[in-house]
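lol ok so funny story. i was supposed to be doing the assay writeup but got distracted and ended up predicting the structure for this chain instead. priorities right. anyway since i did it might as well share w the group, maybe its usefull for someone
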Amino acid sequence: MKKQLAAASLLAILAASAVEAQTPLGPPRGFKRVSDLVKIPRFLPGLGVLYVRPDTLPAGPFLAYDRRGRRVSTIYMIPVEDIGNRKKFDLAGFAGRNDHVSIYFNEGHPGVEVPHYHVVIWHVNKAGEARVAK
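and the output, tada:
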C-alpha cells in the first residue's frame, strides 16, 4: 500500500510539472511580461510573447507564448563573455514536451544588452514554431 501511495504521489508531481510547462493559461506565478519590463514589442517575431522572472536575468529562463497564449518554447540568453570566461550556469529546469533546440547569436537588445546566444528549447514541432515566425 505504501509503495502504491508513493508511486501515485510521484506520478501526480510529474504530471503537475508537465502540465505547468504546457499550460495555455499563461506563465507560472512570479513571471513578468518582458515588454512590461523593458522597451520591446509585446510580440517578437520568431520568439513570441516573452515572460521572465526578473531576478533570473540575463540568462532566464524566458517562457515564450504564441498569440493565442500557448507556450511554444523556453529560452535561455547566455552572454558571449560568460561563455568565453567559462562561467558555470545553474539554470532553472523546465518540464514538459521538448521537440527540438535552436541556438543562435544575438548582438544584444533591451533587457539583455550584451552580445549573447539564444538557446531556444522548442516545446512544439516546426509547424508550431511557425506560429511565432510572423
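The mean pLDDT is 82. The first helix runs from residue 2 to 22.
back to the writeup now i swear
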